[in-house]
């Protein structure tokens, strides 16, 4: 396991009006979420999939248990099961 160096958080404080506007924008953006059921037939490069999985693996978990299991399925017959 590799460890990353500590990177301090650099935080810019905004005024109340700005954060209220940003929170409203964020709400509208999140409200537009939807389930995706139609997928493109376009093949995704393996490096992109690996980076997505590597990124997902950095998500926080309760008690840092990291209970993640990722599976990449490429065969159409396996996907239909």
Automatic annotation (TrEMBL):
Domain Nitroreductase: residue ranges: 31-80
UniProt cross-references to Gene3D superfamilies, sorted A to Z: NADH Oxidase (3.40.109.10)
Signal peptide: none
One Pfam family it belongs to: Nitroreductase
Any GO MF annotation of the entry: oxidoreductase activity
Keywords annotated in UniProt: Flavoprotein, FMN, Oxidoreductase
InterPro entries: Nitroreductase (IPR029479), Nitroreductase-like (IPR000415), Nitroreductase/BluB (IPR050627)
PANTHER family: IODOTYROSINE DEIODINASE 1, NADPH NITROREDUCTASE
Protein's name in the database: Nitroreductase domain-containing protein
Taxonomic source organism: marine metagenome
């Amino acid at each position: 396991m590799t460890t990353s160096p500590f990177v301090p958080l650099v935080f810019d404080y905004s005024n109340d009006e700005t954060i209220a506007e940003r929170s409203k924008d964020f709400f509208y953006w999140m409200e537009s979420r939807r389930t995706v059921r139609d997928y493109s037939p376009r093949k995704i490069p393996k490096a992109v999939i690996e980076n997505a999985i590597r990124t997902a693996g950095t998500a926080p978990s309760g008690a840092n248990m990291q209970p993640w299991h990722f599976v990449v399925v490429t065969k159409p017959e396996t996907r239909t099961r």
